[in-house]
TrEMBL record:
Keywords: Membrane, Transmembrane, Transmembrane helix, Transport. It is found in: Membrane. GO terms for cellular component: membrane. The chain crosses the membrane at residues 152-175, 201-219, 246-265, 272-294, 324-343. PANTHER family: AQUAPORIN AQPAE.A-LIKE, AQUAPORIN-LIKE. Belongs to the MIP/aquaporin (TC 1.A.8) family. It is a multi-pass membrane protein. It comes from the Eukaryota. SUPFAM superfamilies: Aquaporin-like. GO terms for molecular function: channel activity. InterPro entries: Aquaporin-like (IPR023271), MIP (IPR000425). Gene3D superfamilies: Glycerol uptake facilitator protein (1.20.1080.10). This is Aquaporin.
Length: 354
């Protein structure tokens, strides 16, 4: 059965998960009438002008930049049908709800996975193209300034700036529908934090990976040959062992996940940053981490942070023996992050008795 889209839902803090901060929705808005609490006041005042044309909002706790405002009340009987079809329409899922395999039959989840595929294709192609350069041997700096006066220091900056500008725009574009994860790293992190269901995680990662592979075919055609490397996806294995690369990848992904959650998914930060600001802070995080890991270790040109991106780069060029670190690193970081959020949860659960 296709997931119901909720139009002008009562987007409020769920009664079954009480935020440590006061409720963000005024009591006057808590009624049977569905209200979008995050709209600017002038839009709320003008909503009567569009009685028969209203935006469709899919309730989803894992919307990046949404700070878990786009959810339904798990204790409200009116939402039982929606929650049966979409368990992650509200946070604090049980294991049975997380692993409800009926989600694989949801046409909407497949549609959202397709959108994640498109977002991943766009992101992988542009971010790879900006940092693509011909194969060359690793050389040591010859000046007193060291690496800070070389292209090794400045070249990754362009990739970081691309992340800063492109990532927020992609989140704005795709978040209203699919949640704007774009990367398997974010999807895995939301899964281990009990924010999204297992079927959604599998479909999203599959879509993002497919998008990365398609971008790789496009990148190969655009560049004209396979003799190139991509920033964030190349390790000189004669200088940097794979285990060292794994350590950097794990810690870089851990930083990205924690900061992305802190600004774009934590309901306690909604009033601090707002839905318009948090995607840009995710972009800033990507800039800092991707650039900051790119020049310190000779032979290592930056953390991947997105396994689908490196998959696309290798589809376009050739697969190295160390590609596994681009998957194991984010997976380990997502598990570690999930354990922390299990110890220090975002919500205090107070489910009503059935």
């Amino acid at each position: 059965m296709t997931m119901q889209l909720v139009t002008f839902l009562q987007i409020q803090t769920a009664k079954d998960c009480v935020s440590p901060l006061p409720n963000r929705v005024p009591e006057t808005q808590k009624s049977s009438t569905m209200v979008i609490a995050y709209l600017p006041q002038h839009e709320l005042d003008a909503k009567e002008d569009h009685l028969y044309l209203k935006p469709a909002i899919a309730p989803f706790a894992g919307r990046l930049g949404g700070n878990q405002d786009f959810i339904v009340d798990r204790n409200d009987p009116k939402n039982l049908e929606v929650l049966e079809q979409v368990p992650d329409a509200a946070p604090c899922m049980t294991l049975a709800e997380i692993f409800d395999l009926r989600g694989f039959a949801s046409l909407d989840l497949w549609k959202f996975a397709m959108l994640e595929c498109v977002a991943s294709l766009m992101n992988v192609f542009i971010s790879c193209w900006v940092t693509t350069h011909p194969l060359s041997k690793t050389t040591s700096p010859t000046t007193e300034a060291g690496v800070y006066a070389t292209v090794t220091f400045f070249s990754p900056l362009f990739g970081g700036i691309t992340n800063l500008l492109l990532t927020p725009l992609l989140i704005y574009t795709f978040a209203p529908s699919s949640g704007g994860h774009i990367s398997p790293t974010i999807t895995l992190a939301t899964f281990f934090a009990r924010i999204i269901s297992f079927p959604r995680m599998v479909l999203y990662v599959g879509g993002q990976t497919l998008g990365g592979a398609l971008a790789g075919f496009a990148l190969n055609s655009a560049y004209g040959n396979r003799e190139f490397t991509v920033g964030g996806c190349h390790i000189d294995s004669t200088l940097v062992p794979a285990k060292d690369g794994l350590v950097i990848e794990f810690l870089a992904c851990l930083v990205l996940i924690f900061l992305a959650f802190g600004v774009a998914l934590d309901p306690r930060q909604a009033k601090v940053f707002g839905h318009a600001t948090s995607p840009w802070l995710v972009g800033v995080t990507l800039l800092i981490v991707s650039w900051g890991t790119a020049f310190t270790r000779e032979g290592y040109i930056g953390a991947s942070l997105n396994p689908a991106r490196c998959l696309g780069a290798y589809v376009a060029s050739s697969f190295p023996t160390y590609h596994w670190i681009h998957w194991v690193g984010p997976l380990a970081a997502a598990i570690g992050h999930g354990l922390v959020y299990f110890v220090d949860p975002l919500w205090t659960e107070t489910r009503s008795s059935p």
